Amino acid sequence: MARSLRVLTDGGERLPKPATSLDIAAELGKLLVMLREVCPPNADVSFDFDGQLHVRIDVRQVEEVRLIQSLLPSVGAGLFDNISHGRTPHRPFYHRISAVVIH
């Protein structure tokens, strides 16, 4: 027998239906397409989630860092915040641009 689980907030209202993994994959895919448009072809783009969604873009040349940092604030009408750059762990010849994806 199947049981239905109702999840309620403290106010007694229902919580929104959680997104499926397909929905999440589709949204990440859209973000990836937007990022690929402003990144060089050899850039490594990845996502990380620790309560906030972060994007990591690893490139080889400092000029690419400057270009991406100048373009990233306008991608997706301002989807990216806290844009920074630094070293790439375990990849000494790469530079990493990091940003928080805001919703």
Helix content: 25-40%
Per DSSP, what share of the residues sits in E-state strands of 2 or more residues? 25-35%
Q: How confident is the prediction overall: mean pLDDT?
A: 87
Main sheet strand line-up: 1-2-4-3
Total number of beta strands? 4
Largest sheet: 4 strands, antiparallel
Q: What is the N-to-C succession of helices and strands?
A: HEEHEE
Number of helices, where a helix is a run of at least 4 consecutive DSSP H or I residues: 2
Rg on CA atoms, Å: 18 Å
Distance from N terminus to C terminus (CA atoms, Å) equals: 39 Å
Q: What general form does the structure show?
A: elongated
Indicate the low-confidence ranges by residue numbers.
1-5
> Structural class of the helices, strands and pairings?
alpha+beta
Give a written overview of the molecule.
This protein has helices spanning 21-38, 62-71, and strands at 44-49, 53-59, 80-87, 95-101. It has a domain at 43-101. It is an alpha+beta fold. It is elongated, with a radius of gyration of 18 Å. The longest helix has 18 residues, at 21-38. Residues 1-5 have low confidence and may be disordered. The chain is built from 2 helices and 4 strands, in the order αββαββ.
